[in-house]
UniProtKB/TrEMBL annotation:
A Pfam family annotated for this UniProt entry: Cas3_C
Keyword Cytoplasm: no
Xref: InterPro entries: Cas3-like_dom, Cas3_C, CRISPR-assoc_Cas3_HD, CRISPR-assoc_Cas3_HD_sf, DEAD_box_RNA_helicases, Helicase_ATP-bd, Helicase_C-like, Helicase_Cas3_CRISPR-ass_core
GO terms under biological process: defense response to virus
A single MF term (Gene Ontology): RNA binding
Keyword Metal-binding: yes
Protein name, entry field: CRISPR-associated helicase, Cas3 family
Length: 962
């Protein structure tokens, strides 16, 4: 016999109102209304599967610890209660037809306007219900205090308790309160959970709570997939058994799974894990890294500093495997500084994963992942889906349910594909896949106070995080990195940081941030943190017996240091490219492969054009303003020619080749050149460029006689007698005067004093380049002081600017719940482009597809017809591939970005493709040019995209006007 509820129209049993209160409209549930009880039980059933088949043991253990071993029951209960706030007048009145049934049964409302109903969101209503009812069944106040924000935040924003104030008319009073309590009791009863048994629920870490919040959202989103959870409007069809069967089918059909098996052989038994996984004996730095994490008692931070080519990646992956076994993690996230560096890392991680557990799928996370051939082949049977995320006037999603999945494009099946399931690559879900490689932006975005940030933490919670090329983060990005480290430490996530050129100050800041999170206090004593005495080095930071512990070791590099000659190129006052061309011509007169690195795309284009007059097709240009397909092709071709001997697809090394590139050549660009010409840059970046010089072991005879000794020629630097150094305006715009002045002093000293010993000199050079002691001759002192003052002021401003976007900041240390996490307003960050711009402190840039205007509609860049309105791209896969390959990111210029948002749209015929219909087209004329944001844009197959001011007499229409 069920609960009797007295309403204004008499007495009815609980089965009656369970059969009337709806949770999803027919539109959102596959054609038939879905009763609220059905959705709550569906989500609880999915929650059980998330626990059993997805969560890493480290997460399960932490929830078990706070619930006396009943973490599974607690998690399923929280999933089941997430939408209990829909049992309120505010929600039930949203659909007039369904509302009539509720009112007719006696659960009515008076004096409530639709506007008032919209203002009382069901997520907050649910928080009120659990916050008021659970203490009545014995829950402690501390237990309720950390649980209600999880219910309140299941739409991605966690409010302050002040936002829970409501009018009884919209929340419900009298019989409504009985109904709400009955839903809580019914969910608990169907799960065979005694609510009173959680009376002494302990509080998990705040980071653990945030991850748990994201996992509840994950369960909700799976259970909201109308393809697998169609609406059930008949109460007789709803049961816990039925929901579990639906969940099992959906889980299997979606292909969801967690990381590697917990019963696989422990890697700690391998005396040389690097050799075991990668087939080559471990180098000293690699052995030291693995040993350092073996000695950690639990999660911690490992910083590995080693020269370029030392094998840091292999060391990190081996160390991650040891850490995962130690703490109960089941996957990794590898964060790289750029999209271009993510692609080669993806291949390396995939090879390692095959050795660890070949059944675990992998994902590539960045905006141009679709252009990676290896990833494209793996995902060929994956169709991508998105979560509908319509915002109400309070910035919260409400489509009568949570996000629902819709069909996307399905490619032809490919047997044996090892990509993560399609579900993981819908909106905001990428980090939930067990093993992912992508840009570090995904980690930095986890440090922002943004909607659904908890999904990112749910993905990171059971992983080991590896961050490569950390020296590439500026002071602004570093604030988000420090915030991420605080949260990861609080959650118990191990982190491995890799760098070839890490400033000592940054090393200490990384250690301090991780310990702040572990200790949950802002003041951390780093007095006992030793500095490495050699290079390579490992720094381990962890907690033992409640106190910070440090372990620092130094090793010998596997390759002996070699002398690198340093010369400064004499250039004209306007830095015209003629001097660079002459120098390169002289150096490769007998053959050889040269790399020329310029600080701006425009300078690289000018230098390339000058060099082509001498070298013709023996010179290659590589920068970020080529279309995605062209850039990928050029990069692959250069690496095939100049990459490691014996690599797959390797070509014969050319007798002569000149590569002109921008900063894309600084990181994870595994090529070996005989001579380097590079614009002046901050010393750590300059040394990264030097890392391409004589990078691989080659027989002496393979290099021209004059290039057998490594040499770097520094361009973009003039040293006038009796005056301060000069450099191109573009270099100043990118790096500022302060770091360039310090680098210039070190370069000038090397040019007159015998060069550098690489890698032995690297740590000292980086420490000097970012240190406080004066560098350079006395006549530079005034300019250096002014530049430092300007730089420090800018750094302070950037730190403050970043603070406004941080998820919680140092002020959040020591808090015990998530209450009010999103209480502070931030600027709308509804697109990945805007969020990326925030964490990198850059102007927003826009990605577009280049198409040509033709005589009868539109053409691809190669001249293939797209039809009158672009429709051919939707029906012809070959044409679609060509269109997608013409994707390019416009320069981060405010005028261009504003014009792109205002003027550029998808072609009318692209609406039938899930990706194209969201993609802006930049329409080029027959001269391959367009006008946008007051700029004249021209695309050339050899130069890429060029910019110039719009001529006054140019009357052509804007680029988006077809």
């Amino acid at each position: 016999m069920g609960l009797s509820i007295i309403s204004g129209m008499g007495v009815f049993m609980d089965d009656e109102f369970f059969g009337m209160i709806w949770g999803k409209s027919a539109e959102k549930a596959g054609g038939s209304m879905h009763l609220l009880l059905g959705h709550l039980l569906d989500t609880a059933a999915v929650g059980e599967l998330v626990w059993d088949r997805f969560l890493a043991s480290t997460i399960r253990d932490r929830l078990d610890d706070c619930s006396d071993g009943r973490g599974r029951s607690l998690f399923a209960l929280l999933c089941g209660l997430h939408d209990v706030g829909k049992a309120t007048p505010a929600f039930q009145m949203k659909d007039e037809g369904l509302a009539q049934r509720v009112r007719a049964a006696g659960l009515g409302w008076r004096g409530v306007t639709p506007q008032q109903g919209r203002q009382w969101h069901h997520a907050r209503a649910g928080a009120v219900i659990v916050r008021k009812y659970l203490p009545q069944v014995g829950w402690s106040r501390p237990g309720c205090d950390w649980v209600w924000p999880l219910v309140a935040g299941h739409h991605g924003l966690i409010p302050d308790r002040g936002r829970l104030v409501h009018k009884p008319a919209v929340h419900g009073a009298g019989p409504w309160l009985d109904v709400q309590r009955a839903f809580v009791d019914r969910v608990a009863g169907d799960l065979n959970v005694d609510l009173a048994s959680f009376s002494e629920l302990r509080t998990p870490s705040r980071g653990g709570q945030l991850a748990l919040s994201g996992m509840i959202i994950m369960a909700d989103w799976v259970a909201s997939d109308k393809e697998h959870f169609g609406g059930l409007s008949d109460l007789a069809e709803i049961s816990m058994k039925g929901s579990r069967e639906r969940a099992q089918r959906a889980w299997a059909q979606l292909g969801l799974r967690g990381g590697w098996r917990s019963d696989r052989p422990a890697p700690g038994n391998q005396s040389d894990l690097v050799h075991h996984r990668f087939g080559k004996p471990a180098r000293p730095a690699q052995r030291a890294a693995v040993q350092a994490v073996r000695e950690m008692p639990g999660p911690g931070l490992l910083i590995l500093e080693a020269p370029m080519g030392e094998g840091k990646t292999e060391a990190a992956l081996a160390a991650a495997e040891v850490l995962a076994g130690k703490v109960g993690a089941d996957g990794v996230f590898v964060g790289m500084p750029t999209q271009a560096t993510s692609d080669p890392m993806f291949s390396r991680v995939r090879g390692w994963l095959t050795a660890v557990d070949p059944e675990v799928p992998i994902g590539l996370l960045h905006g141009r992942a679709r252009f990676n051939k290896e990833w494209a082949a793996l995902r060929s049977q994956v169709r991508f889906v998105d979560v509908h995320d319509d915002l109400d006037e309070y910035g919260m999603a409400d489509d009568f349910g949570t996000g629902t999945s819709g069909p996307g494009r399905r490619d032809a099946p490919l047997a044996g594909a090892a990509a993560a399931a399609e579900w993981f690559f819908g909106s905001k879900r990428g980090l939930l896949a067990a093993v992912t490689v992508g840009t570090v932006d995904h980690l930095l975005q986890a440090a922002t106070r943004t909607k659904h940030v908890m999904l990112r933490h749910a993905g990171l919670a059971g992983r080991v995080v590896i961050l490569d090329e950390v020296h590439a983060y500026d002071v602004y990005m570093a604030q988000f990195l420090f915030e991420a480290l605080r949260w990861l430490a609080d959650t118990g996530v191990p982190v491995i940081v890799l760098s070839a050129t890490l400033p000592p100050v940054l090393r200490a800041q990384l250690a301090g941030a991780y310990l702040q999170g572990a200790l949950q206090r802002p003041d951390v004593d780093l007095a006992d943190l030793p500095r490495p005495t050699g290079y390579p080095s490992t720094t381990a930071v962890y907690m033992a017996d409640g106190k910070p512990r440090f372990s620092v070791t130094s090793q010998s590099p596997w390759r002996e240091s070699v002398p690198v000659a340093v010369e400064i190129l004499a250039e004209p006052t306007d830095f015209a490219p003629v001097s660079i061309a002459a120098a390169v011509s002289a150096e490769v007169s007998e053959g050889g492969c040269a790399l020329v690195v310029c600080n701006t795309v425009q300078r690289a284009q000018v230098v390339y054009a000058e060099l082509r007059t001498t070298f013709g097709d023996d010179v290659v240009l590589l920068h970020s303003r080529f279309t995605a397909a062209e850039r990928a092709s050029r990069t692959e071709d250069v690496v095939d020619k100049l990459g490691p001997p014996g690599r797959e697809n390797a070509q014969d090394r050319p007798a002569r080749l000149v590569v002109v590139a921008t900063q894309v050549a600084e990181q994870s660009f595994d090529v070996d050149v005989d001579i380097l010409v590079t614009d002046l840059a901050p010393i750590d970046l300059l040394l990264q460029r030097v890392g391409r010089l004589h990078r691989h072991d080659r027989p002496t005879g393979q290099r021209p006689a004059r290039l057998r000794d490594p040499k770097v020629i520094v361009s973009g630097l003039r040293l006038p007698d009796g005056a301060v150094p000069l450099w191109p305006a573009g270099s100043r715009a990118v790096y500022g005067d302060h770091l360039l002045l310090r680098s210039a002093a070190l370069v000038a000293e090397a040019a007159t004093g015998g060069g550098w010993s690489i890698p032995a000199d690297v740590p000292g050079l980086v420490a000097l380049g970012y240190g406080d002691e004066p560098l350079g001759p006395a006549r530079w002192a005034d300019a250096a002081a002014e530049a430092r003052q300007e730089w420090e002021a800018k750094e302070r401003r950037r730190r403050v600017n970043a603070t406004g976007f941080l998820l919680s900041g140092e002020d959040g240390l020591g808090l015990t719940t998530l209450e009010g996490l999103h209480d502070k307003a931030t600027a709308p960050l509804e697109t990945e482009e805007r969020l990326t711009a925030v964490v990198r402190d850059s102007d927003e840039s826009v990605e577009v597809v280049l198409v040509r205007r033709g005589p009868a509609g539109y053409l691809t860049l190669a001249g293939r017809s797209l039809g009158h309105i672009g429709e051919v791209a939707v029906s012809d896969d070959a044409v679609l591939e060509e269109v997608v390959g013409a994707t390019i990111r416009l320069p981060a210029n405010k005028e261009i970005t504003a014009a792109a948002h205002a003027e550029l749209t998808p072609l009318a015929g692209w609406d039938g493709d899930s990706w194209l219909r969201r993609t802006r087209a930049l329409i080029l004329d027959d001269r391959m040019s367009a006008i946008l944001g007051g700029r004249h844009l021209t695309y050339d197959n050899k130069l890429g995209l060029s910019l110039a001011p719009r001529p006054a007499a140019d009357t052509r229409p804007a680029a988006g006007k077809g």
